[in-house]
Amino acid sequence: MYYVTKEFSFDAAHNLIRYHGKCEKLHGHTYKLRVTVAGKPDSEGMVIDFIELKEVVRNEILRHLDHSYINEIIEQPTAENIAKWIFDRLKHLINDEHRKLHEITLWETPTSFVRYLEEE
Ligand SMILES: Nc1nc2c(c(=O)[nH]1)N=C([C@H](O)[C@H](O)COP(=O)(O)OP(=O)(O)OP(=O)(O)O)CN2
Ligand SMILES: [Zn+2]
């Protein structure tokens, strides 16, 4: 099995609701996003073309989240919930006989990140 990964970043604002602490106030992050696809190489020797992966993530994720106020898209925009939202939007688009979406890793700060994978 191969694991093919591409990294992205986006800037966005959010505030946490039902939360008491500094993050209930409006603030922003430069998020780092890592998308990992698992599979076996096709006849071109690729699990997924990095260029195709870039286009899918740009169109389905970054177009919505970059320079957004994330609360308008995800009610409670924790890193956990944003990672799952990203996974759910991509999983049907990266899923065929030789590859599937494996993992989303999302950094909210350089030292704080979550990983989301689906149970087998
Ligand atoms: N499990 C989670 N905990 C927190 C989340 C989250 O999404 N999931 N989010 C926040 C806040 O959004 C906050 O912006 C992040 O806090 P923190 O990691 O403390 O960020 P700092 O830049 O202040 O910390 P550094 O240690 O300097 O990186 C809070 N908790
Ligand atoms: Zn935050």
General description of the model:
This protein has 120 residues and is an alpha+beta fold. It has one domain (2-106): 6-pyruvoyl tetrahydropterin synthase/QueD (Tetrahydropterin Synthase, Chain A). The protein is 23% helix and 38% strand. Strands 1, 2, 3, 4, 5 and 6 form a six-stranded mixed sheet that branches. Strand 4 (95-96) and strand 5 form a beta hairpin. The radius of gyration is 15 Å and the shape is elongated. The two termini are 15 Å apart. The structure holds ligand LPXRUNBV and zinc ion.
**Separation of the first and last Cα atoms:** 15 Å
Largest sheet: 6 strands, mixed
- For CATH, the homologous superfamily is named as 6-pyruvoyl tetrahydropterin synthase/QueD
The CATH topology: Tetrahydropterin Synthase, Chain A
Helix content: 10-25%
Low-confidence stretches are: none
General shape: elongated
Can you tell me the CATH class? Alpha Beta
Write the layout of secondary structure elements.
Layout: E1 2-14, E2 27-39, H1 50-65, E3 68-69, H2 79-90, E4 95-96, E5 99-109, E6 112-116
Parallel strand pairs: 1-3
Antiparallel strand pairs: 1-2, 2-5, 4-5, 5-6
This protein binds the ligand Nc1nc2c(c(=O)[nH]1)N=C([C@H](O)[C@H](O)COP(=O)(O)OP(=O)(O)OP(=O)(O)O)CN2 and zinc ion.
